[in-house]
Structures are given as structure tokens and as C-alpha cells.
Amino acid sequence: MTKRNDIFKKSVSRSLIAKVASIILSLINLRVTLSYLDVESYGIWITIFSITSWIVYFDLGLGNGLRNKLTEAVHQNDGLKAKRIIATSYVTLSIIGVFLFVLISLAISFFDIENFLNLNNVSSLKIVILIVVLFTVINFILSLYKQLNNSLYKTEYNEISILVFQSLCLVTVIILDWCFSPSLLLLAIGFGFSQTFVSLIFTYIFFSRNRDFIPNLKAYSKEINKDILSQGSMFFLIQISMMVIFTTDNVIITKYLGPESVTTYSITFNLYQKALIVSSIALAPIWALYKNAILDNDINWIINTIKKSNFIFFIFSLLIIIGSFFTKDIIKVWLGRDLSYPDYLIQFCAIFIMIRIFSDIYMYYLNAAGVIKLQMYLYVFGAIMNIPLSIWLIKNTTLGSSGVILATIITMLPFVILMPVKVYLNICKLRNDG
């Protein structure tokens, strides 16, 4: 237990400075990017980013499956198995990535995106999307280093990589603002190169510190691939459902309310999302540590950790509620301008983030335990409900973009009730089996 707590404390303390710095930089980045583009172009940029971010959900659950399997191999001191797991994951992700790029490129060529999103005369829109897709696919493969760090309890490296990426993005936007007129194309290229550079550097750092894990084609294993994907298939269904619930908002708002509405919505949501990001400092290392505790049947550590996580949730909820009274003033100081807010947007964003933090506490444990059927059912139900409910609320109420986040809140409510119950039942089962 002491060793596990030491790992947790070191990971959190090392991550904290990098996380806080990256959050500050991301806030500066948003202001600088909004200054470089106009409000409408920024809304289009956010919508493009939302659509292309869907790619990361199509890894067939391999990333999360890898996380559990590699943690097991490391716990068993089986270096050869760990190497085979990593090599197999890279090969499989590369095949998926190439397939996705070809498929999406063909879809972009034949699909009328401007008409679908109700956009008019957006210069080089398809080229911009294609470039963003290309870099997203490249980093879809290269960013596997994050799951490798998670499995080895080195989550602080992931936080540092985000900090470096935010720094490069800020430099990129400042240079573009000084030297060029507003251009979504140049922004896409600049951000894409920055992300790829960071992924290459931190992949190199991981394998330079873990040379025994350096993959090669000979280490690829069909059996391991099947083993990872057998659990990964349920993770994949969860990921696709999460994609629908959490990343379609901007697309829906652009289509039915226009890109200007996306800007206000995304800025408000972005601010509240920082609370979720900060909470992840504590939660990120816990998945692999839960897996370790389950393998050791350390029930007391699991229960104490969940209690501490709930205390963290209480503190964050208190801060979020207090902060909601000052959100408009904070955003005005942050961006140097006033925004027009639809009714209840701020309150709904606050409620949604609190629900996410609370449900993540239990989701991390269930993922580590491999108990994911309940999540799968809940996420699939939420995905089926989310889009039609969002559209209905936009069309039949005066909530505007607030209706979209309200729909997401409604689809997430079952998580708040059922996931803690499932965790309690699973811990009871572990205690009885032990």
C-alpha cells in the first residue's frame, strides 16, 4: 500500500506544475487564436477540430486494452510480453490509421461539408479538413506513448508533453498573427506540425528510458492482438458512444445555430473544462494503480482511494459552484471582450462538469477491474438519446446552445446513480473471492 501511495503522490506532484502551466497557456492560446481569427472563423475552426477529433475514438478500444494488459505484464515483471504487447499495438494502430485516412479522404472528396454545416464560401475548407485529418491520424498512432506512460505510472510525462504542445501552439499563432493574414489553412499546418513534433520527442523519451520495450515487427503477435481487442471491443463501443455524447455539440450548434454560437458555447465550456482537466491530475495515475491493487487484492487501499476521490469531488464542486457566479467577469477579463450568453449556459456547464468528475471517479475503477458492460450499456443509451434530444431542445425551446449541454446532462444522469452501485457490488465480490 505504501509503495502504491508513494507512486500516486509522486505522479500527482510532478504533474501538478505542468498541468497548471498548460492550462494557463491554453487560456492564452484561445485568446490569441480568437484574436488571429474572427469570431465566425474561430467557430468554424472549433467545429473542424471537433469533427477530426472523432478519429482518436476509432482505435477499436486498443489503447485502453493495452493499458490494462501492459500494466499486468509490468506487474509480473514479464519484459518480453510487454515488448510484444507494445509492438502489436503499434502495428494494429498503424493499420487502422491508414485505413481511416483513406476512408475519410474519400468521404471528404464526395461529401458536401459546407452544405451540411450551413457554411458559405469558406476558403479551402476541404483542404483544411484534410490536413487536420492527416496530422490527427499521424498522432493517433504516435500518441500511443501516453498509454505506455500510464501503464508504467509515469503520467507526469503526458502532462509535460501537453505543456510543450501548448507552448509550441502559442508561438505558432503569434508568428502567424505577426506575419500572415488570418488563415485556417496555416493554423491547421502549424498546429499539426507542433503536435507531431511533440509526439515524436516523447515517444523517443519513453523508449530511451525503456530500451527493453523497443518494438519491432518480429515481436508482433496475433494472439496478443486478439487478447487486447477482446476486451478492447467493449472499450471501443464505449469510446464511440462517448464521441457522440461529448464531441458532437459543436457540430450540432454550427448546423442549427451557426458558427458564431459555437464560439460562445466553446469558450464557456472550455473554461469549465479546466476543472475537469485539473481533477484528472489526481485521477490519471489511479487507473493503473487500481489494476495493481486488484491484482494484489488490496481492498482497503481501493476503498480508501475512492473515499479520497469523493472528497476531491466535493472540493471541486464547491469551487465550481462559487466560480459560476463570476464566470462572465472571468471571461471578460480573459478575452478582453463581452460575450452574449444564452440562458442557463453557465449553470448547465457547471452541472455537467460536476457530473463528469463524479462519474470518472467510478469509471476509472471499473475500467481497471475490466467491469465495463454497465458503462457500455449506459454510454450506448446516452449516445442514442443525445443527438435527437439536443436537436429537439434547440428547435422546441428558447435555450439555444444551452439546450445542447442540457441534453448531455440528461443522458449522463444514470451514470451518477448506477456506477457507484456497480463499484460497491464489485468490491464486495472481490472481498468475498479473496
From TrEMBL:
InterPro entries in alphabetical order: Poly_Biosynth_Transport, Polysacc_synth
GO cellular component, one term: plasma membrane
Stretches that traverse the bilayer: 12-30, 42-60, 90-111, 123-145, 157-178, 184-207, 228-247, 267-290, 311-332, 344-365, 377-394, 400-421
One Pfam family named in its UniProt record: Polysacc_synt
Keyword field contains Transmembrane helix: yes
Name recorded for this polypeptide: Polysaccharide biosynthesis protein
Species this chain originates from: Vibrio parahaemolyticus
Membrane topology reported for the UniProt record: Multi-pass membrane protein
Domain of life: Bacteria
Keyword Membrane among record annotations: yes
Lineage: Bacteria, Pseudomonadati, Pseudomonadota, Gammaproteobacteria, Vibrionales
Location(s) in or outside the cell: Cell membrane
Keywords in alphabetical order: Cell membrane, Membrane, Transmembrane, Transmembrane helix
Coiled coil: none
